[in-house]
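Module 6 notes. Inverse folding takes a fixed backbone as the condition and produces residue identities as the prediction. Think of it as a translation problem where the source language is geometry and the target language is the twenty amino acids. Below is one complete input and output pair. Work through it position by position during the lab.
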């Protein structure tokens, strides 16, 4: 599916990459990928503002690598929130990560539709939907999360949902396009 959001900011052209741009990416990607083709269009667009990128990426890296959530729960939450935000770019880029985290094609379709047969996936989808529509997790959902997750995990879940909603909003607003094969 093509990106339906208008292109507003292009990735930083290769001839404009400098040490500030490469250093801004250091918390998320290795130095050999800190270039226009290795970084991908989201990061290559973000480095148009190296100071913002340098400040934002450690948080995003935490959500992706160091959170107390399992990779599966992170991907269920992330896929649901980027679906709700109509961010096809992040959806398509996280399908391989979701599969590596143990989600089947059927699980992924269920996250998109909101009709998960797995009770924990369903609970996470409900938390995402609560936050997207009400800007808070409804008390029954929060309480049920408390039976399945520690307080740290519930906090990580809220920040994962909010963090990826923020990224989806940025990707959509900037009109980040799929990489050309």
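Target side of the pair, the amino acids:
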């Amino acid at each position: 599916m093509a990106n339906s959001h208008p292109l507003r900011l292009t990735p930083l052209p290769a001839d404009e990459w400098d040490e500030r741009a490469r250093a801004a990416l250091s918390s998320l990607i290795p130095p050999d990928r800190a270039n226009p083709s290795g970084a991908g269009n989201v990061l290559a667009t973000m480095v148009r503002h190296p100071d913002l990128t340098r400040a934002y990426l450690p948080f995003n890296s935490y959500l992706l690598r160091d959170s107390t959530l399992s990779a599966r729960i992170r991907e269920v939450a992330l896929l649901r929130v980027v679906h709700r935000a109509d961010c096809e770019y992040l959806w398509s880029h996280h399908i391989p990560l979701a599969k590596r985290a143990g989600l089947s094609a059927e699980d992924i379709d269920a996250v998109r539709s909101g009709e998960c047969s797995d009770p924990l996936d369903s609970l996470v989808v409900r938390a995402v939907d609560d936050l997207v529509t009400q800007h808070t997790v409804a008390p029954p959902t929060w309480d049920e999360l408390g039976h399945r997750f520690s307080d740290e995990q519930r906090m990580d879940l809220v920040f994962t949902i909010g963090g990826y909603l923020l990224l989806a909003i940025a990707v959509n607003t900037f009109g980040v396009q799929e990489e050309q094969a």
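Reference fact for the lab report: The CA atoms of residues 10 and 45 lie 6 Å apart.
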